[in-house]
Amino acid sequence: MGLDKPRTLLAPFPILIDGNYVIWHRRGTHYSKCGCPGIHAASGFGFRRSIIDTNLAYTSKFFAFEVLPCLYSKKTFYFPCTCAILYHIKTNHILCEYLSRIKFIWAGFISDQAIIELRRVPLTHLTVIIGTFTTKFVTHQETLFRRFFKRKTTHITQALGIFELIELRGIEFVRVENYGDPLCRPSEGDRKALERMLIEHVGRERVDQSERSSDNLMAMD
Questions:
Q1: What is the distance between the alpha carbons of residues 29 and 15, in angstroms, rounded to a whole number?
Q2: For strand 125-130 and strand 8-10, is the pairing parallel, antiparallel, or unpaired?
Q3: Which residue has the higher pLDDT, 199 or 1?
Q4: Kind and range of the H or E element at 143?
Q5: Do residues 126 and 172 make contact, with C-beta atoms less than 8 angstroms apart?
Q6: pTM metric for this prediction
Q7: Under a CB-based contact definition with an 8 Å cutoff, are residues 42 and 8 in contact?
Q8: Pairing of the two strands 16-17 and 20-21
Q9: Which residues are within 8 A (CB) of 182 and not within 5 positions of it... i.e. 6 or more apart?
Q10: Contact predicate 104/82, CB 8 Å
Q11: 95-124 confidence digits (pLDDT tens)
């Protein structure tokens, strides 16, 4: 039996209720829409909206311990925004334990929090989709600077989540894709530069959190 090309599955969209995003701890709740600026780009990649019913993980032991681990470790999962990443990692511990391949649109007002949570996931393949939606939200440092300095444009290096992204480790394959009008989206040079930077940083060996904490204490001493 030969190796098939990994199939890409689309994670559900988040629900926006009365101006507030769905509560993260609501187990089994699926996304339907999201206010993130990159959601409209989801249809541009030709992915069908597949609903992954995580409730099965809690109703069937066979499905939870046999089927889902295989599914999550073999397939590539597509996330339409970072809100979807955070939601699924927070609500599905089996996904968090086995997810190894993701492709996501870098957009959202909680991109930094979502990417931090990716440290808990055994990722080996990462594809990041960038566009004008990526720079709609900027880093906390840039927010501070903009209180005093006027900025006419926003560079990809100022996008919310950039620092958290380059701190990921243990990823074997990295790719950056560009989406949108060529006149508005990040330049091809920026795309290549970001891809090279990620390859250099996220490909490093993953360090256990306990080891990182002990190293920090030793450095303080």
A1: 9
A2: unpaired
A3: 199
A4: helix 140-145
A5: no
A6: 0.76
A7: no
A8: antiparallel
A9: none
A10: yes
A11: 899 999 999 999 988 899 999 999 999 999
